[in-house]
Amino acid sequence: MAGPFGAGRDCRLIKEERPCDNIGEDRRGPPLPDRRGGMTGGSDLEKEIKSLETLGLRELRKLWAVHFGPSPKLRSEELLRLMLAWRLQAEALGGLTPETRRRLSRRGAFAPEGRALGDGAILRRDWQGRQIEVVVRADGFLWEGKTYPSLSAIARAATGTRWNGPRFFGLREGGQ
Length: 176
Prior knowledge:
Blueprint: H1 44-51, H2 57-68, H3 77-93, H4 98-107, E1 122-127, E2 130-137, E3 140-143, E4 146-148, H5 151-159, H6 165-168
Antiparallel strand pairs: 1-2, 2-3, 3-4
Helix pairs in contact: 2-3
């Protein structure tokens, strides 16, 4: 019980030197010097990010264009909102450190799922009594004489419903 109320702190100093003046019921300590705006919770950046919650896709795209140029061609309001919030924070607070950028670049680009199988690999799946056979190619996936950009597109064409392609073909757990 003593911990949350600042036990062990000597708050009997004269008024000008009191370190405990700003410890209130919310149990926050003094603002940290390395944080812009301290810990007030009401910075302009926070208000701007909070205001994104009320904007629709069209307004989010306009705001992106004002700050960063042409907006990404996303249809997901939530994804654009998250990207915009991250970019605003990065612009105000500095973004990724050089060390983080180096570590990410060392990891290399992520290969799209299914492409790691290599050219010529064959994926088979039985679906409602018919066999679906897909050939992995450098430019996509071949099924019934047509090249598709993704396994998900083939799964949708074959079943008539949306599927996660790698899951449908057993490359991820949870399929079938």
